[in-house]
């Protein structure tokens, strides 16, 4: 039965009126925000890795707990069983994290296969648990030429597909080979300041949403589907 005669197709049992109280939980987490960082290159001097390491330093300074996943040794998706040690390491980190940073080089106008392989190994669901749903995400890219946004745009699409809360800000570092010194540290520049902005925004969004993430992604269609599944099970028992 519908909660309103004007909305005859609504399921009253699954319908919820969004409320402010659920967005302001009385019990809030006090641990450091847990952030997983992924990068998309295996080169010895990988600029996506150097940018990721710089981001991790900033996150640590902002009170977060960053962990960087090393993609070396990760097999291609479906090339090995899911119990491969590198796959299990990645999936464990994905479940541990409350937010993520994805940083890819732009190659042939797109993110790298190494970047995509990591994302593809993170499942949409493990049993009844969605490892990425409701978690925050920041996206960045590096390029060898002029500034481009192809990779970050693709990463945003993937973040939406993984049901993540992708923050508005992003970073695209052009001519990355000019932006890092011999020690691998990022030089002072507007690009560096943008990375600071992105990490600051990521920490803020993570602190804002992590305690109510399950409420933010609680959906009418899925509540209704669950109710129908329960009904089918009850009916089967009664036959």
What labels describe this entry?
6-stranded parallel β-sheet; globular; oxidoreductase activity, acting on NAD(P)H, quinone or similar compound as acceptor; FMN reductase (NADPH) activity; flavoprotein; 38% helix; alpha/beta; NADP; 7 helices; 239 residues; NADPH-dependent FMN reductase ArsH
Could you walk me through the main structural features you see in this protein, from its secondary elements to its overall organization?
- Its cofactor is FMN.
- 38% of the residues lie in helices and 12% in strands.
- It is of the alpha/beta class.
- Strands 1, 2, 3, 4, 5 and 6 form a six-stranded parallel beta sheet that branches.
- The longest helix is centred in the last third of the chain and has 20 residues, at 190-209.
- The two termini are 25 Å apart.
- The model has no long low-confidence stretch (mean pLDDT 90).
Number of beta-strand segments: 6
Low-confidence stretches: none
Q: What does the oligomeric state look like here?
A: single chain
Shape: globular
Keywords: Flavoprotein, FMN, NADP, Nucleotide-binding, Oxidoreductase
Family: Belongs to the ArsH family.
Domain NADPH-dependent FMN reductase-like: 33-176
Cofactor: FMN
Summarize the entry for a quick read.
Homotetramer. With 239 residues, the chain is an alpha/beta fold.
């Amino acid at each position: 039965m519908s909660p309103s005669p004007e909305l005859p197709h609504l399921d009253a049992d699954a319908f919820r009126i969004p409320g402010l109280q659920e967005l302001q939980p009385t019990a809030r987490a006090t641990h450091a925000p847990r952030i997983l960082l992924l990068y998309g290159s295996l080169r010895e001097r990988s600029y996506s890795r150097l940018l990721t390491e710089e981001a991790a330093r900033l996150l640590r300074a902002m009170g977060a707990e960053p962990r960087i996943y090393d993609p070396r040794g990760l097999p291609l998706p479906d090339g090995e069983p899911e119990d491969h040690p590198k796959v299990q390491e990645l999936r464990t980190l994905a479940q541990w994290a409350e937010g993520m940073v994805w940083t890819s080089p732009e190659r042939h106008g797109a993110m790298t296969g190494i970047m995509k392989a990591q994302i593809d190994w993170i499942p949409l669901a493990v049993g009844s648990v969605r490892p990425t749903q409701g978690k925050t995400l920041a996206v960045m890219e590096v390029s060898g030429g002029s500034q481009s946004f192809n990779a970050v745009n693709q990463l945003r699409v993937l973040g939406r597909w993984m049901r993540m809360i992708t923050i508005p800000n992003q970073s695209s570092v052009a001519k990355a080979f000019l932006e890092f010194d011999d020690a691998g540290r990022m030089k002072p520049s507007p690009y560096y300041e943008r990375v600071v902005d992105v990490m600051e925004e990521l920490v803020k969004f993570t602190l804002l949403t992590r305690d109510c993430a399950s409420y933010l992604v609680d959906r009418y269609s899925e509540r209704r589907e669950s109710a129908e599944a329960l009904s089918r099970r009850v009916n089967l028992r009664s036959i």
